[in-house]
Each structure stands twice: as structure tokens, then as C-alpha cells.
Amino acid sequence: MGLCEVSQTLPYMVSSLSDVAVDVVAHFQSKGFKTDVASTPTGGCLIEIESIEGDLNLGTKAVFKVALEKPAYNRVVARAFIDWDRGQGAATRTSMLAFWPVALLQVWGIVQSNKMDHEAMAVVEQSLRLHGVPMPL
User: Fold this and answer.
1) CA 76 to chain centre
2) Which residues neighbour 78 within 8 Å (Cβ) at sequence distance 6 or greater?
């Protein structure tokens, strides 16, 4: 589960979410962001968009992610969220126990100021219009 999550359920039917993931990756790469995409065991996609290294003085590193899932044949759930880098050392993880609210607010502030969460959701919806079939609510 991510932190500071924005989620949207979109009424589209798509055969594969990989086409949508490719569009999201291409969009952010064209803007100079580093990206990575992986398939999930449930047939979804998890996209990492540029490591965000805030000036948190805690040695922390957070990653902005977009998750795409198909819980039903005629729906797509898109989530944009912050996830902490798993490669942190024990000392950093220990300091995060005390300072995570400050770090979280600073990192989420970076994402909000760049409007990356809304931008990612807009790209997902635009891609679904291109690759999917709209379904009634």
C-alpha cells in the first residue's frame, strides 16, 4: 500500500493494460523522467516514475508510482502514490519511524507541486480512450 494515494475507477474495457502502461511511460520519459514498469501477478502494471529525492536530511528516498489493475472486465482502477525505497539501511528506517510525517509531507508536496498525480491520471484516461472501449457506469 502506498502513501498519499490518489485513486480513480474508470469505466473502460481493455484487453491488456500493457498498452496503457507503455503510454504512461512514454509520456513521462518524453518529459525527462526515469521510468520502470513491471507486471503484477493479477495482470496489472506497476509503473515507477523517477526517484524523488527530497532534501529531507534523513537519507530517505521515495518513489512516485502508478498502479493499473482490472478488478472487473469493464473497469480499470488507476492509483498514483508515494512508496518508500526498499533499499534503505537500518539506520534510515529507524529514523523514519520518528520523522515519517515530516518526510511524507515534504515528498507529497514535491509531487503535488509538479501535479504528477493528476498528470498521470490524465494520461491513463487518455490512453484508455485510445486503447479501450467505454462502458456504462
Assistant:
1) 14
2) 7, 8, 10, 66, 67, 68, 120, 121, 124, 125
Predicted structure pTM score: 0.77
* Residue 2 DSSP class: -
Number of H helices, E strands in the chain: 3, 7
C-alpha cell read off for 44: 496489472
pLDDT digits (tens, 9 = 90+) for 54-93: 444 445 566 789 999 998 778 999 999 877 665 554 455 5
Given phi > 0 = left and psi -120 to 50 = alpha, else beta, which region is 134? beta
Distances in whole angstroms, Cα of residue 104 to Cα of each of 35, 37, 49, 67, 119: 21, 23, 17, 19, 20
Q: Is the pLDDT of residue 45 over 50?
A: yes
Q: Are 125 and 10 in contact (CB under 8 A)?
A: yes
Do the Cβ atoms of 12 and 135 come closer than 8 Å? yes
C-beta of residue 47 within 8 angstroms of C-beta of residue 63: no
Contacts of 126 (CB under 8 A, 6+ apart): 23
The CA distances from residue 51 to 30, 35, 63, 125, in Å, are 16, 9, 5, 23
